[in-house]
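Tip: read the tokens left to right.
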């Protein structure tokens, strides 16, 4: 049977495989900075701040399932004060023309309830969701369109505060990972002036990436819009986080604790998953759509139960690598699983050659946790 430590090592490889590359991450950072500078220059009468929110800001980006899919870059277009625009004016008359004028777009700019979705010819592999907003004292007002009423209003939010809150929840493990990278750099006599923030990834961030990939696979054909939203997964995972120092335990904390957390926050029969960083008069409830569409809450709990079986329970009862790969095909996708297990096979080959791979006498399997050295492979009698 696979042990928790062995599965954790496998999840480490999965997390690396589904993460965005540092090159593409830097490309996205350079793009939103360039867009922000251009918009700021084009609006001399207003001061505008462009910054990321969502997975790019939280370090939980997940690679698209196929090459045809795109990364989603969420940006806030924040006017640093209230310039007197109505919600419709700010979104339609001010921000949309700026986005249209920035670069040549691949398609028409698509309006969503709270943002504009735009794809640019020069920025392949990404689409950008831009949320118009203006700053208040402790939070921002973002534009929100009511599709049924065809009206525009402002609602309160605090994306930067959420980022700060999330970072506070991972601060202990972030410092540990940073120190390990720092010590490794010293041992390797590498450049240690600056360790990229991109490389400092905590177990909780990796666990969230794995959960999101499992969600993406399970709801790949989600015609009813019931796929669990990332902000709910991320918020609950951070709330039940106990500073676990490995991915497996971080997954366990979420998958075993999420239902209790949700049920403890039901009031008057309504689901509440509050934005922990928003202190406005009316709290921001990430689960508000669950109360309007109960099937979305049902879908979340169904996904939670399936992920618990797929990521925790069943892998611990599998002893054969081929069967484990077959199991993970349904959790992470065939292509991703193939890459991970090919990487594992190559790691094993190298470990056998340097004799760091050993036999576990109880099961007969090979593992770095074993006790008996595996003899070096001697092809053709050498």
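Filled-in amino acids:
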């Amino acid at each position: 049977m696979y042990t928790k430590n062995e599965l954790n090592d496998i999840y480490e490889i999965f997390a690396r495989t589904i993460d965005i590359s540092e090159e593409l991450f830097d490309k996205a950072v350079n793009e939103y900075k360039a867009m922000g500078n251009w918009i700021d220059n084009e609006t001399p009468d207003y001061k505008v701040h462009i910054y990321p929110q969502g997975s790019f800001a939280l370090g939980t980006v997940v690679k698209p399932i196929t090459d045809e899919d795109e990364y989603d870059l969420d940006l806030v277009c924040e006017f640093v004060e209230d310039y007197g625009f109505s919600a419709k004016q700010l979104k339609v008359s001010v921000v949309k023309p700026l986005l249209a004028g920035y670069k040549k777009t691949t398609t028409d700019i698509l309006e969503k309830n709270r943002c504009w979705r735009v794809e640019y010819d020069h920025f392949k592999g990404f689409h950008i969701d831009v949320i118009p907003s203006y700053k208040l004292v402790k939070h921002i007002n973002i534009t929100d369109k009511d599709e049924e009423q065809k009206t525009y209003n402002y609602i309160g939010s605090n994306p930067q505060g959420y980022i700060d809150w999330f970072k506070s929840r991972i601060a202990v493990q972030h410092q540990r990972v940073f120190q390990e990278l720092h010590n490794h750099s010293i041992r390797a006599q590498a450049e240690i002036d600056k360790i990229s923030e991109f490389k400092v990834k905590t177990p909780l961030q990796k666990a969230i990436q794995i959960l999101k990939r499992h969600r993406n696979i399970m709801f790949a054909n989600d015609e009813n819009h019931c796929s669990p939203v990332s902000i709910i997964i991320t918020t609950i995972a951070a709330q039940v986080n106990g500073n676990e120092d490995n991915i497996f335990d971080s997954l366990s904390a979420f998958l075993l604790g999420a239902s209790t957390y949700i049920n403890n926050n039901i009031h008057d029969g309504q689901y509440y998953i509050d934005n922990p960083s928003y202190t406005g008069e009316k709290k921001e409830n990430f689960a508000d759509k669950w109360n309007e569409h109960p099937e979305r809450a049902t879908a979340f709990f169904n996904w939670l139960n399936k992920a618990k079986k797929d990521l925790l329970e069943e892998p611990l009862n599998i002893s054969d690598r081929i069967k484990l790969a077959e199991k993970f095909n349904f959790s992470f996708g065939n292509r991703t699983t193939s890459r991970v297990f090919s990487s594992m096979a190559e790691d094993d080959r190298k470990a056998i050659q340097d004799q760091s791979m050993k036999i576990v006498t109880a099961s007969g399997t090979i593992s770095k946790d074993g006790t008996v050295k595996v003899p070096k492979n001697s092809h053709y009698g050498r």
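The mean pLDDT is 89. Residues 170-195 form one domain.
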